[in-house]
Amino acid sequence: MVIDMNDSQLQTVAQLSAFLDGSLAMKFSPPGNDVERYGFITAVLKRLNYRRLGRSDKGVVGCYLRRTTGYSRSQLTRLVRRGLRGAALTKRYSPPLQGFARKFTASDVALLAHTDALHNTLSGPATKVLMQRAWLLYRDTSYERLANISVSHIYNLRAQAGYQAKRLHWTKTKGYAVPIAVRRAPAPDGRPGFIRIDSVHQGDQDGVKGVYHINAVDTVTQFELVATCERLSEAYLLPVLRELLAGFPFVILGFHADNGSEYINRKVSKMLDKLRVEFTKSRPRHSNDNALAETKNGAIVRKHLGYGHISQRFAGAVNAFCREFLNPYVNFHRPCFFAQEVIDDKGKTRKLYRLENMNTPYEKLKSLPNAESFLKAGFSFKQLDALAGSLSDNEAARRLNEARTKLFQSIHRRSRHVA
Questions:
Q1: 204-205 vs 208-209, strand pairing mode
Q2: 168-197 pLDDT, tens digit each
Q3: Residue 1, pLDDT score
Q4: What letter would DSSP give residue 372?
Q5: Do 16 and 126 reside in the same domain of the chain?
Q6: CB-neighbour burial class of residue 209 (10 A; exposed 0-12, middle 13-18, buried 19+)
Q7: What is the mean pLDDT of residues 47-70?
Q8: In degrees rounded to 5, what are phi and psi of residue 46?
Q9: Do 198 and 230 fall within a single domain?
C-alpha cells in the first residue's frame, strides 16, 4: 500500500509514536523532489521543536522522517544537523554545465592502436617513450598530445571500444572437458574397497628427478599400501597400480584420485574399467575429497622415507622395503583414529576422535558388519590373523626401523660409489 499523507495533525512526539506503531505495513510516497523533501523536514523539525526534545523523542522523530522521506539515517543526520545550525536546507551540489573535456580524441586512440600494431603492443612505459620520441626526436606533430600521456592512461585508452575495434581480435576460450572419471567424492556407505590414491615425489637433485611413491588408502578402514616406481609414465606406473590393487585383502570397488594426469588418462581408466572399479576424481574447491591420502602422505610416507632425494635406480629396493616391512607394520600394528560423527543441538555434524575408537586398519576391517563378505577370493581372516599375530607391535616396529636403516645405508653407499 502506497499512501500520500498530510501530517499537519501530528503535533506531538507521542502522536508520531502512535502513528508509527499503527502503520508498520504501510509504504509512504515521499515528496517528489529534494526541494520538497527538504521543506518537509524543516517543517517537521520546527513544528515539534526538535531542539528541545530528549534523546528518545529525537529517535522517534528520526524514525518518522526516514519512513516518510526515504532518506538514510546518515543523510538525515546531516540534514538535521544543518537545520539545527540555522542553515537553510538546500541542495549544495549541481550538475556541471558541461561534461569533462576529453584531452585525447578519437584520432589519438586510433594513433595509439596504430603504434601498438607496428610494435606488437609493448608495455605502457615503452609505448610512452616511443610516442615521446616520435614527437620530440622525429617531430611528428600527430603525437603532440600523446607524448604527454601518463602510462596508466595508456591502458585506459587501450580498454576503450574505439581502440579494441581497430586493434584487438577476441577469440573465445574453448573449454575442454576431460571425459575420464566422475567428478565427485567417494560414497563407500560403510563398505571397504573405496581407495584414495596420491603420488609423493622423493625430491630433485641437480635437476634429476627422484623416485615416486604411490600411496593408496582405503576410505573406511584406512588400510594403506605404499609402492614405489621410477617415473609416473605409463610404463612404470601401471604395473605398480596393478600391484597395489591386488595387494588389498578386500575387493576394490572405487578408485579416487586428484586431477593429476598420471591417473586421469585413458590407460588407467581402461584398466579400472576392466576391473569394474568406479573411477572418481576430486572436485574444485573441495579439498576434503582426497584429504585422507594427503594426510597419510605426511604421517606415513614422509615420516618413514623422509624428504631427501632418492635416485630412480633405487626404486626396486624402496618398493621391496614398502611391501615387506612398511605396509605390514602400518596395517597390522599401527593404530589410527577413526572419527565418530555426532549431531549437536544446532543440527551440525561434528567429528569426534576418541581414544576408544582407535584401532589398527586390520582391526577396523574385522569390526565391520559382514566383514567376511568383503574379502577377495584367496583371503581369509584366519590367514590374516596369523599374519597379524606373527609379530608384536614393538617387534614389527623394530624390524621396520632396522630394514629402513639398512636401506638408506645401502643407498648412501652405492651413491658414493657411483660418484
A1: antiparallel
A2: 666 677 766 778 888 888 889 889 999 999
A3: 46
A4: G
A5: no
A6: middle
A7: 83
A8: -75, -40
A9: yes
